[in-house]
Amino acid sequence: MRILLCNDDGYFAPGIEQLAHALRGVAEVTVVAPERDRSGASNSLTLDRPLSLKRAANGFYYVNGTPTDCVHLAVTGMLDELPDMVISGINNGANMGDDTIYSGTVAAATEGFLLGIPSLAISLCSRGGENFVTAARVARELVARLQRRSLREPVLLNVNVPDVPHAQLGALVVTRLGKRHKAEPVVRTLSPRQETVFWIGAAGEAEDAGEGTDFYAVHNNQVSITPLQIDLTHSAQLPLVRDWLRQ
Q1: SS3 state of residue 33
Q2: pLDDT level of residue 65 (50, 70, 90 thresholds)
Q3: Cα–Cα distance list, 139 to 30, 89, 133 (Å)
Q4: How many CB atoms lie within 10 A of CB 16?
Q5: pLDDT above 90: residue 242
Q6: On the chain, which terminus has fewer CB atoms closer than 10 Å, C or N?
Q7: In the chain, which ranges are continuous DSSP H helix?
C-alpha cells in the first residue's frame, strides 16, 4: 500500500513525524508537506508563481506552497505511481464543525479526494499536543481496517481524536459536523513601529454540539469520524431560487 502524507503545520511538525513513523510498518509512505505553517489556508492553490520541491534531511519533501499545492504537485507530477490513500495530519488542534471550511488539513485530504484517491484528515483535539501517538495509532488502525475491507465508493473522512492516552479513548463513532457560534472580533493592536495591525479573532464556542456531532463525540473521549462531501449545492433552496427568478 502506498500512502501520501501531508499536513498544514509544516513538514517539521511533530504530528506528521508521528504519523509517518506509525504508518511505515504497514505501507510505503511519502511525505510532501508545506515548508512552513499554513494553517487556515483552506483549498487555495498557488497560481501566481512557480513551486519548488525540496527534500529535508529526514527524507520528507517540502513545498513552498499550500497543503493543496503539496497534494496536487505530488499526485499529478512528482510520484511515479498514484498513492492508494492520502492522509493529512496529524493536525495540532481540532478540525470540527465550521473549522473544516478553513482548515488546510482538511483541504489537503480534499485535494486527494478530488483527484480520485481515498483520503483522510486527522486532527488531535488540543493545542497542547500531548498525545500525538494516540492519533497516530488511530490512523494506523483505520488504514488497517481499509486494507482488510475497503469502502465501496470514494471517501473523504474527517477524523478528530481527543488528546488523551490511547487507553482512555472511547469508541470510534460516525458523526455529523457540529456548528460554532460566530467567531470573536478581530483584535486591534499596535506593532513595534506604532502601526495599527489586526489579529484574526478566536473561533467561536460550539453552538450545535448535541449527540451525534463531532463536538459531542470528542467531549466524551470518542474518536469522531465524519464523512465529508464536496457538492456545495443547497438542494433544498433550488425551488426557492427558481420561484424568486420567475417573479
Answers
A1: strand
A2: very high
A3: 15, 10, 10
A4: 26
A5: yes
A6: C
A7: 14-23, 67-73, 99-102, 104-114, 132-148, 214-219, 238-246
Dihedral sign from CA coordinates of 232, 208, 135, 99: positive
- Residues 222, 125: contact at Cβ < 8 Å? no
What is the 8-class DSSP label of residue 34?
E
pLDDT digits (tens, 9 = 90+) for 110-169: 999 999 999 999 999 987 889 999 999 999 999 999 989 888 888 999 999 999 999 999
Distances from the Cα of 167 to the Cαs of 130, 143, 158, in angstroms? 14, 19, 22
pTM of the model: 0.91
C-alpha cell at position 197: 495591525
172, burial (CB in 10 Å: exposed 0-12, middle 13-18, buried 19+): middle
In this structure, what DSSP letter does residue 84 have? S
* Residue recorded with cell 467567531: 183
